[in-house]
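Work Package 3 committed the consortium to producing structural models of liganded targets before the mid-term review. Because experimental data for this complex are still outstanding, the team generated a predictive model from sequence and the ligand definition alone, so that downstream docking and mutagenesis planning could proceed in parallel. The input record is reproduced below exactly as it was submitted to the modelling pipeline, together with the SMILES string for S-adenosylmethionine.
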Amino acid sequence: MCRTGYVPFIGNWRSNLLRQVRGCVLEVGAGRGPNLDHYQPGASIIATEFNEESIVQAKPRSNAHIRLASADIEHLAFPDDTFDAAVATLVFCSVERPIVGFREVRRVLKPGGKLYLIDHVRSHHAWLGRLQDRLNPRWHAFAEGCNLNRDTEGNVRAAGFELISLKVNFLGLIKTMVACKA
Ligand SMILES: C[S@@+](CC[C@H](N)C(=O)[O-])C[C@H]1O[C@@H](n2cnc3c(N)ncnc32)[C@H](O)[C@@H]1O
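The resulting structure, written out as tokens with the ligand in place, is given here.
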């Protein structure tokens, strides 16, 4: 599992992003549920995760509007065009086939549905990106499949999403994105 879940300031970024989320929402890779306290009343959430232990730990944060379910992002068992919004924070750094995962998320979103993302990525600063490339093999082994150097913005576009907002923090190491199933 990725060990960057406790990035400084992440709590503010979560609440700033998630207060925009409305309707019937799919969260993928929900982990122990740190996002679940940040959704607006009225939103109906299905928070999914493939690690059963994390689902048990997220349970106290579930309620009538927030349901937990087991799901692999690369094989979502939901019909096409089901959700108004999807959320993934600090997840696509460790999804084995990120474009496959983003395509699955796109499939289950309704036309016009939005994807809300926060992730750590490969920096656009050449020196830092090269350092991330060099560190990645060891990091990947240490952090159980997490990658330091993903081009998550490129993967979002490659899966067919249209990027509608992008915020870049910490020398390009963290990106907050909103994308749309056009
Ligand atoms: C660093 S944790 C982030 C948890 C939470 N989203 C957060 O913001 O802190 C990454 C999570 O993604 C989950 N994950 C990774 N690949 C997945 C996949 N293919 N399907 C479902 N969950 C996945 C991991 O089990 C882990 O709980």
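Reviewers should note the following from the model. The pocket of S-adenosylmethionine is lined by residues 1-2, 5, 28-31, 34-35, 49-51, 54, 72-74, 89-91, 94-95 (CB under 6 Å). These observations will guide the Year 2 experiments.
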